[in-house]
Amino acid sequence: MGTFNRLHLIRQIDLFTLRLFLSAVEEQQIQRAALRENIAASTATKRIQDLEDIAGVKLLERGPKGVVPSPAGAVLVHYARRIFENVEDMRSEISAFTEGMRGKVVVASARSIIAPFLARELGDYARDFPLVELAVREVENAQILEAVSRSDADIGVFAMAHELELGGVDVTPYRRDRLVAVVPKTHALGARETVTFADLLPERVIPVDAMLGAFRVAAKRLGKEFEPLFSVRSAGTAISLVQSGLGVTVQPECLVSHELFDDVSCIPLDEPWAVRSVHIATPRGRVLSPAAAALMKQLLERPGEQAPAPAQD
């Protein structure tokens, strides 16, 4: 054994070896300590020998009944236990930043955003912050901004549109996807690489309620009226009607499952408004609660195609 070198000990020692050393003292046998710490007995013996070399002093005395700490080993036992007590205290204090965060966060969004984007991320947040009460309100796009501006929701996630009033909210880009035409597999448009809204107007277009306004504006630009025979609330209902051959629809691409491709074709919609920019709204000028700020941070840090910043009028 060499002489004790404090700096060498600090640089070379690791917590697992210290834990193994304590287990050997408590079990009075290196083999049982190895079993307890789930490593091979030969590896355990080598680690403790290395620890003694690092310390420069014998730490365990071997005898017929097993191992006991040497006088120097007894000192190490004392301080090692204190180290692990401090590690546990540190873990508890750090975990309080997540496990201990409390409060309530209300999120308002639309079904076409919750399903492909938010559901998984809100689930992750709920697991990360189990003491936070998370409430989700499914509302139409325009109502999301109203809820946030009235502070009925802490965070709103919405699809940007020209007709929306943004005066009462702060807006942050979140995600982006595109709109596609969904037509029956045998439809004449199914072989096209792209379609325009003008191509779709002669067909029986099945809109979801949230997109009805955008379709009427697009039709008006073409000098036509848009008064559909069908009007449904969900993308799933619209797509099921298309599968039955009752018409065509326009949906965010992320909502069209690959399992449907035997029955329908998806064709990119060649329109300036066909790129759907999804944004996060928060009450204008208001500081978010710690729980809401943590959700906002998580949403913005998760990988995904980011939406462009909203255009300035």
UniProtKB/TrEMBL annotation:
Domain HTH lysR-type: from-to ranges: 13-70
InterPro entries according to UniProt: HTH-type_LysR_regulators (IPR050950), LysR_HTH_N (IPR000847), LysR_subst-bd (IPR005119), WH-like_DNA-bd_sf (IPR036388), WH_DNA-bd_sf (IPR036390)
Keywords attached to this entry: DNA-binding, Transcription, Transcription regulation
Pfam families: HTH_1, LysR_substrate
Matches recorded under PANTHER family: HTH-TYPE TRANSCRIPTIONAL REGULATOR YBHD (PTHR30419), LYSR FAMILY TRANSCRIPTIONAL REGULATOR (PTHR30419:SF2)
Family statement: Belongs to the LysR transcriptional regulatory family.
Protein name: HTH-type transcriptional regulator GltC
Classification lineage: Bacteria, Pseudomonadati, Pseudomonadota, Betaproteobacteria, Burkholderiales
